[in-house]
Amino acid sequence: MEGVKLLGHWASMFAIRVNIALAEKGVEYEYTQEDLAEKSQLLVGSNPVYKKVPVLIHDGRPVCESLIIVQYIDEAWPDNGPALLPQDPYERAQARFWADFVDKKIYESGSRIWRSIGDAKEEGKKEFIDNLKLIEAALGDKPFFGGDAFGYVDVSFIPFACWFYSYETEGSFSIEEACPKISEWVKRCMERDSVSKSLPDPHKVHESLQLFLKKRFVKE
Amino acid sequence: MEGVKLLGHWASMFAIRVNIALAEKGVEYEYTQEDLAEKSQLLVGSNPVYKKVPVLIHDGRPVCESLIIVQYIDEAWPDNGPALLPQDPYERAQARFWADFVDKKIYESGSRIWRSIGDAKEEGKKEFIDNLKLIEAALGDKPFFGGDAFGYVDVSFIPFACWFYSYETEGSFSIEEACPKISEWVKRCMERDSVSKSLPDPHKVHESLQLFLKKRFVKE
Known about the structure:
Two copies of one chain form a homodimer.
Chain A (H helix, E strand, L loop, with lengths): L3 E5 L4 H12 L5 E4 L7 H6 L8 E4 L2 E4 L1 H11 L12 H27 L2 H22 L12 H6 L3 H11 L3 H4 L1 H11 L2 H4 L5 H18 L1
Parallel strand pairs in A: 1-2
Antiparallel strand pairs in A: 1-3, 3-4
Helix pairs in contact in A: 1-3, 4-5, 7-11
Subcellular location (chains A, B): Cytoplasm, Cytosol
GO biological process, one term (chains A, B): glutathione metabolic process
EC number (chains A, B): 2.5.1.18
């Protein structure tokens, strides 16, 4: 039962957060690639409420929901390098706000780009760009969201970078043009091993998205 | 700019969380009742992303999103009585999981009871009861979610108790029958001043819901 296990998926922006957080903290772990079409008994049993990746299993005890897992990693290994969350209560609240914004607004509007057609697709695209601009304003001219150090909001948002090509291709727009500071921030994050080793090739992500959309289309 | 202000609404389960957390911590504050049909400039300016209550303004700096505010209160006034979040990282993760579950599953399925008709309404009701049973199992035989002490999950979930009458009336079912341990937990929480003084009369909540549904119906 001892040790750290991660049930993840190579293309899931939520699961990739956990790979990055564990790498940042230098925690060794056993990785299991889940087949989302046929989820393992371990996944279903460890996350009975959502039955979703990622699940972190630490000494036999499962932790679910990616942002909760990242905070758990920060708190369970406090001596492994710098903290991901800032120390100041107000800055912590700000960091939590923007990580939550990524889930509530960026993920949601982004998914509408490829799940919808016509007006709904255009609306999703417009909202996605508006949301990117909001988070770009929160980044401002800082190297990372928390300032000079890579931290909680960076871990929460950077996995989306491997989906940027899919958003752009499906929506016909350029993130670099709309949000140049976000593009610069992505490059800065990619200089870190924890990020570059965790993010898959954006073209491979897009291929898997196309396969998913094709299957869905055939079913419907 | 100094001091603590809360922009809230008497019937919002999210805003009431903040009233309870501030009362638990014995923090004095200035309360503003927002008119949700005509939101104040202060609300819109303090929460430009969501434009929603609650917003806590501490020494001029706004904190948004109720669960983030409750955690902020716990961290900004660490010496004001017992902590709301447990100390152990795993227990903290569990507490965050269930508070998040209240938002993602209980609120969402509950709202479908009165926002839908026919099959969708029945489905919302079934899911709402299933979700209540899941959180009831997490409570188990403990007095409060964290054990013997009133804490983060209790603060996050107890405001829903003043909506229980609305769920029951609109959905024609009894929460006490379906989830007797949740009913006992509500009574236990209501013995605390922080809770009983923050929760409005369930009948008044139901009247305001009926008014809202009537307006919506007339508009459509």
